[in-house]
Amino acid sequence: MAAVCQVLGTSPGFGHSISHSHVRTKRRFDPNIQRKRYWVPSLGRHVRLNVSVRGIRTIDRRGIDAVVAEILARGEKV
């Protein structure tokens, strides 16, 4: 599963792990991606979305219909 939120577009950040001896190695900061199933009344069916926890809060605020309409307008498949 790709670590990208379908609602917000949040993707991994990159940086360094720094050890006690201050040796730096590359690492990834992945967003908290969850696979959620939502009922969308406007489509009359369930959709599965890969969303970050912040994306879930966005869906709670704006409503699933508005968010799915925006995703479809971008040309993404749901």
UniProtKB/TrEMBL annotation:
GO BP annotation list: translation
InterPro entries tied to this protein: Ribosomal_bL28 (IPR026569), Ribosomal_bL28/bL31-like_sf (IPR034704), Ribosomal_bL28_bact-type (IPR001383), Ribosomal_bL28_sf (IPR037147)
Keywords linked to the UniProt accession: Ribonucleoprotein, Ribosomal protein
Keyword Electron transport: no
UniProt key word Ribonucleoprotein: yes
GO MF, one example: structural constituent of ribosome
Any one cellular-component term (Gene Ontology): ribonucleoprotein complex
Pfam families on file: Ribosomal_L28
Family classification: Belongs to the bacterial ribosomal protein bL28 family.
HAMAP family: Ribosomal_bL28 (MF_00373)
Protein name: Large ribosomal subunit protein bL28
Organism: Actinotalea soli
Taxonomic placement: Bacteria, Bacillati, Actinomycetota, Actinomycetes, Micrococcales
